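We store sequence, tokenised fold; for instance:
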Amino acid sequence: MFKKLLASMGVGSAAVDTRLHQHRLSPGSMLTGDVVIRGGEARQEIEELSLFLMTQVEVEAGDTEYRQPHAIQRLALARDFVVSPGDHFAVPFQLFVHPETPLTELPVSQGYPAYGQASLGKGGWGPAPGAGLAPGGAGARPRGRGCRVWIQTGLSIDDGIDASDVDALVIAPTGPISRFLAAVENLGFRLFSADVELGTLRGAGFQSTIGCYQEIEYRPIAGSRYVGRVNELEVSFVTRYNDTGVLIEVDQRFRRHDSYRSVMMHHQNYQNVDWEGELGRILG
């Protein structure tokens, strides 16, 4: 009885350990792994074992801005079972990573397709390569508080303190996203910051569905023909099964309001499109 009381307070309680088969993947791919459950010092009834695909979002409330966790997906693995002392077993899982999952790793390059990587994961940026930003920028190091994506495992214990486990993921861009961002860089822009915003993104023929969307901000580098014409270029993606919608927000120096344009990348033929030319026509 005493051990059961302690377990209800989290002392000697059942524990979970999620073991991912891969930590780096792209939106729309399959994540696999096992959730290992170890019994505590008392018999415990489990209400549910669940996995959550999580990110952090920017929230604006009046004049303040803060970050909060946001669940992209939830996968229930098991319900209503018992974990006894000495139990040690694994629950395998497969999770189809939502196509709209924010990126934690972005290409930073001098040209397509040979590019390095700037990591947005684990709370910070890696340094960007050599080229400085145009006057008015903030130097060669991208800004932002980082974009994070992780798997959170929850073991809901009846009459006890729930057990949990957190495992970080690296989310790399898909082929179409990599190609479009390479076109942005080939026109003389470099990565400046990225954030995940709470809300819904709408473009011509597409709309986000996970309650948040990512904004990736670029600025022209010194020597680019867009210096003095474009302050910022923000790009957001909504990936679906057959296509990827791109919303482009252009902050132009001599316009009072930002302009928005949408393009659609069809996965079957996106490699045959001159995206530098398409984007150049949008920018004028």
